[in-house]
Amino acid sequence: DQVVKTKPRYITIEDLNVKGMMKNRHLSKAVAQQCFYTFQTWLLAKCKEYGIELRQVDRFYPSSKSCSCCGQKKVDLKLSDRTYKCDCGNEIDRDLNASINLLQAKEYTILT
């Protein structure tokens, strides 16, 4: 509830390939525990209730693989790489980098 009660103008989420992630034996348990569908359904309802635009980027949007500073794409990024290091000097937590990229996304679908 805290996320939507801060009344942001919009929230951006990724269209994750959950079915594909469930096939990865290293990820499947963690993915199942996250209940992505339930969370998205709840978030959609809350965004509608509070008048917040819910945006969804395509599953192929390189949120983790692009530098949030210069935009350079790192194609060889592994899931085990928890810190994003770019040639431009940007060194940032991988998830924070992805969230900044989602914030700056220009192509998305509006769900609300």
Written description of the protein model:
With 112 residues, the protein is an alpha+beta fold. 37% of the residues lie in helices and 16% in strands. Strands 1-2-5 form a three-stranded mixed sheet, covered by helices on one side. A two-stranded antiparallel ribbon has the order 3-4. A hairpin with a 5-residue loop joins strand 3 (83-85) and strand 4 (91-93).
Q: Number of helical segments?
A: 5
Strand content: 15-25%
Q: How would you write the strand order of the largest sheet?
A: 1-2-5
Shape: globular
* Strand segment tally: 5
Helix amount: 25-40%
**Structure classification:** alpha+beta
In round numbers, the mean pLDDT is 90
Extract low-pLDDT stretches.
none
Radius of gyration: 15 Å
The assembly state of the depicted protein chains is: single chain
Largest beta-sheet characterization: 3 strands, mixed
The sequence of SSEs as H and E is: HEHHHEEEHE
Give the key terms:
112 residues, two-stranded antiparallel ribbon, 16% strand, alpha+beta, 37% helix
Q: Which secondary structure elements does this structure contain, and how are they paired or packed?
A:
Blueprint: H1 2-5, E1 10-14, H2 18-22, H3 28-34, H4 36-50, E2 53-57, E3 83-85, E4 91-93, H5 94-103, E5 109-110
Parallel strand pairs: 1-2
Antiparallel strand pairs: 2-5, 3-4
